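Problem: given the chain below (347 residues), write out its structure.
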Amino acid sequence: MIKVGIVGAVGYAGIGILQILKRHPEVQIVWVSSEEAHSGKKISDLRPSLKGLCDLPCHSPDISGIISQVDVIFLAVPNGIAMKLSPAILEKGKKAIDISADYRIKDLVEYKKWYNIEHASPALVEKAVYGLPELFRERIKGATLIANPGCYPTASILGTAPLLKNKLVDPRSIVIDAKSGVSGAGAALTEITHFPECNENLRAYAVAGHRHNPEIDQILGEVASQKITTTFTPHLIPMNRGIHSTIYATLATKISTDDLNAMYRDFYKGAFFVRVLEKGRFPATKYVSGSNFCDINVVVDERSSRVIVMSVIDNLIKGAAGQAVQNMNIISGLDEKTGLDGCPVYP
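Solution.
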């Protein structure tokens, strides 16, 4: 039995991890931690959906005295916190899965530029493994520190990687038009996530300046073995959860939609959580809601010599909590589907 602790258990990602682990046959949740104001309160008092299912008390943010009780710790915390907690976790021989961005960007100058944070544990950045199993499963197996991918990067990278790996597109032409449900902004209220602002509204935000852009470019550059600079525009849409990334690129060689679909299927063979849909069946966020699946379809626009990729995920599951548990399964030697192979919630 894997003993687990969750730091930041009251936020959307933390609650998502807890909900998945409650039905995981190989896991025991030993403790949960949250902000100082929550210390001593039952998590089920803070999140009533857990009443009778998980009534553990919340510990304070200082977890130094309880690290030894667990095997794996999930760090579902704001940027800048995991980098301070991870060294002590690894020093005690435990494994850490960071849901924040602290270990995703390898270039520390670039990290500071986008996040305005001086890294507190720079020596661990190279040690961290980017936790996108469909691309880096073998690296993840031996990792002790996982940098869990962002939600936008997960959908965008999975949709684009096969094109670059097979050198099918002009790498300078990639445009990613992504739309996310409001939960992607987290539980804290902001002006644009206030109900009257986001309901019956659609808006772009962080145009040419979203923090997930360098993460996308870094990983796609690794896939392509060359520098990649994408154009990425995120949008907020009035629904609770889900991400739909539509990716455009100019073809570098002539290929049919049928052949491209076959190539995608081959690229993701053995990847249970990536479903390449049949020709003419386009992905929809509703069909992955509450699940760890990423649904993809790809179409060649012969008129413009461009390829159009549609990639959808649940931002809270494959984009955060589910992928974190998938990574935990892999580093623990379990089947990566364990606890995650339930059906999406439909309708």
